[in-house]
Amino acid sequence: MNKQFRFRFAALTLAMSAGVAQADSAVIDRSFYPYQAEKPAFAGLSAGLTINQANIAQFKDIIDPAFYGFIEKGWLDMQVGETTSFDLHPNYVEATRQGQDKVKLGAKPGEIEGWVAGRPFPQEPDANDPRAGEKLAWNYKYGYNWGDSAAISPFYWKYRDLDSAKVERTIKFDFHFLNFTGRVNQEPTPAITPNPSQLFRGIYVKVLEPYDVRNTQLLIHRAQDDLKRDNSWLYLGFQRRVRRLATGQVTDAFLGSDLMIEDFEGYNGRISDMNWTYKGTKFLLMPFYNHNDLTLDSETHQDSDGYQVVAFAGQGGCFPNITWQLRKVYEVESAPVEGSHPLSKRVHYVDAQTFTVPRTISYDRKGSLWKTFTIGQAHPDHHLAKNKDSGVSIDDSFSMIDVQAMHCTTGQFKGQVDPEMSKPEMFSVQHMRATGN
Question: CB–CB of 357/348 below 8 Å?
């Protein structure tokens, strides 16, 4: 090989490497910063607009069908806000960059190879890929929802009659979340050790009020191996004992609410429990906002530090009084593998930037609309001071509406990205027993 050829070959190799690096960078940028080049727009839509019965028809293409029906009935007016970027933590983005093209699906749903941390599949979903929906589900499971750990303290659930607006019951909780693996920000990273049960994630819930259910606790252990079933325990304060939950109980009404345990965060279960189908990419109005810019609930649940929760309005008081942004969304359908499941399917509207699931529509076994779930997402830099720069899209309000029973359960959050509030020792059966008395 002569000297001139070697020089040209080296230059070509360098150029090809640079091209690959640029292509890889473009994939990451498109996944995490979808509004960098251009914000989505729709004819007649602008920040400050109110969408109601009078003008809803012109915006049919950018509102999911269940919520469109609510506005069409006059159950609420929708306030439009400006589309803003919810940048996830730079360490999570970098972990995705380091793992890019190293992650692969296994032979069957629930199997994955090569993932350490970050978003496993940052590439745009391909409609011709029969497992595209499954890849999006993994992106959600390994997403940065609540970061490495966080707490909702306090968390208020209200049970409401959709017709009369009567508040039938209020329950005050603490919720705690902890990732044992895939950690990118809070030490230790990338995993908590020792981890003899090989856990991926833990969820711990404790009821604070009212008295009749006080000290009821729920603990969920999710294994790294998705093919292993979750271990879940319930501590009943009045019985003063811990019992393991049977698999089917995660689809029962939790404490008489309109939610199943499986509904938490949009979907709280194994990838392998569902058949996942990617239905398309679209722009939809989604519940994203700046908490501190809203008209908040000044009448109830104001903390000593002055923090106020999101207010509720509309039919039955079942709708968070928030603003909605036009955002890039992946529509994903999940259908239970087991025929005994109470649902025939869920339709999830997954936010393409954060991979949170702010809108879910659930259908009963006959295929009829049953429930619709909204989880409001607050920007961390316009929330509590401790959440600033956390890079966590803050779950900040929720509404689960049962359209068949004409009933709803609403949630008002004080989400706190604070590792001191969710330590590993809390996520144990021993802790449940020790704090239950």
Answer: yes
Burial 7-19 (b: 16+ CB within 10 A, else e): eeeeeeeeeeeee
Q: Rounded distance, CA 81 to CA 94, Å?
A: 30
The answer to whether the Cα torsion of 70, 71, 77, 83 is positive or negative is positive
The Cα–Cα gap between 121 and 168 comes to 43
The mean per-residue pLDDT over the stretch 96-110 comes to: 95
The answer to whether 392 touches 338, Cβ cutoff 8 Å, is no
SS3 164: coil
Using only C-alpha atoms, what is the Rg of the chain? Answer: 22
pLDDT tens profile 159-186: 999 999 999 999 999 999 999 999 999 9
Cα–Cα dist 366/22, whole Å: 49
Residue listed under structure tokens 């104001």: 302
User: Do 198 and 179 form a contact (C-beta atoms < 8 A)?
Assistant: no
Reference 260, options 218, 213, 199, 228; nearest CA is 218
Render 39-73 in DSSP notation, one character per residue. Answer: ----TT--TT-EE-TTTGGGGGGGS-HHHHHHHHH
Could you give the CA distance from residue 165 to residue 313 in angstroms, rounded to a whole number? Answer: 10
Q: Return the domain boundaries, the chain.
A: 149-436
Q: Is the pTM of this model over 0.85?
A: yes
- Residue 46: both structure tokens together: 């602008």
Q: In whole angstroms, give the CA distance from residue 98 to residue 93.
A: 9
CATH superfamily of 149-436: Lipoprotein localisation LolA/LolB/LppX (2.50.20.10)
* CA–CA gap between residue 210 and residue 432 (Å, rounded): 18
